[in-house]
Design goal:
single chain, alpha+beta, Fumarylacetoacetate hydrolase, domain 2, 2 domains, four-stranded antiparallel beta sheet
Length: 290
């Protein structure tokens, strides 16, 4: 089931619905009172979600709504994996060995501040007062469905609610200047997500999906989530051993090779550039720099 957050073109009220090809079926029309995706994640049962997936309804045409990020207001900072594909680790080390030339034996975790996540079609602010080295990172994001406390890798799949696409937008010189990645990853508008949140039952676990990115129509990234250095079960289990991984948590699992900082003479993102992040079975997250 593909879940979306949206507003109707004649109403500013946020709603949750089911995306079916070119139509959106609002949950309110099915009798469910979940006003936000966070409420749905925290309160719905597997039985309810199965009933939603099977429900019939005409719904609304896509041109009658504006799709938002599936989770416009994350409950916590996004948890991120750094250098979690070998080929990306190599290109990052070439850009700055001091910042990125690290051991990969254990997962590299950092967090990304997100007050509001914009959806597909919404702009990415250029922040030209702070950065001239704006970059993209297409990532499979995992959304946790129930509190995970000291769980094993074998149990990890039972705690996943679903998956979406996350563009981990990064200001590279800010990222390296501060000797850690938090600020350079956390400027306003640096966490587009979408176009939908696909429930975990739609994929095998862990999902092995094609992940690709085009910049102004040119293919930049083309890989598979099967190539993660540290797998989704390992990531979830590792985090849960030292903290309670709360329901609603979002984990960005890392990006493959092809980001701009990997070029010999990078031309970083400029206003007007369009980034299309795609993941098999989820869709396309498209944003333009402004």
């Amino acid at each position: 089931m593909k879940l979306v957050s949206f507003v109707r073109k004649n109403d500013s009220r946020e709603e949750v619905g089911i995306l079916r090809e070119d139509r959106v079926l609002p949950l309110v029309e099915l009798g469910y009172a979940y006003a936000t995706m966070n409420e749905l994640i925290l309160r719905s049962t597997p039985e309810e979600r199965a009933a939603m997936a099977a429900a019939a309804g005409e719904g609304l045409p896509l041109d009658a709504v504006t799709l938002l990020s599936p989770i416009p207001r994350p409950l916590q900072d996004v948890l991120c994996l750094g250098l979690n594909y070998y080929d990306h680790a190599a290109e990052a080390s070439g850009f700055s060995k001091d910042a990125f030339g690290v051991e990969l034996a254990a997962p590299i975790f950092f967090s990304k501040r997100v007050a509001y996540s914009q959806g597909s079609g919404a702009p990415i602010p250029a922040h030209r007062d702070l950065t001239e080295k704006l970059d993209f990172e297409n990532e499979l994001a995992v959304v946790i469905g129930r509190d995970a406390d000291n769980i094993s890798e074998a149990e990890a799949g039972d705690y996943v609610f679903g998956y979406t696409i996350l563009n981990d937008v990064s200001a590279r010189e800010v990222q390296t200047k501060h000797k850690q990645w938090y600020f350079g990853k956390s400027l306003e508008g640096f966490c587009p997500m979408g176009p939908c949140l696909v429930t975990a039952d739609e994929f095998s676990f862990p999902p092995a999906l094609r992940i690709s990115t085009t910049l102004n129509g040119k293919l930049r990234q083309d890989s598979s989530t099967s190539l993660l250095i540290h797998s989704i079960p390992e990531i979830i289990s590792t985090l849960s051993r030292g903290m309670v991984l709360r329901a609603g948590s979002i984990i960005a699992t890392g990006t493959p090779k092809g980001v701009l900082m990997g070029d010999a003479d990078p031309r970083f993102l400029q206003p007007g550039d369009e980034i299309c992040c795609a993941i098999e079975g989820i869709g396309e997250l498209i944003n333009r720099v402004e």
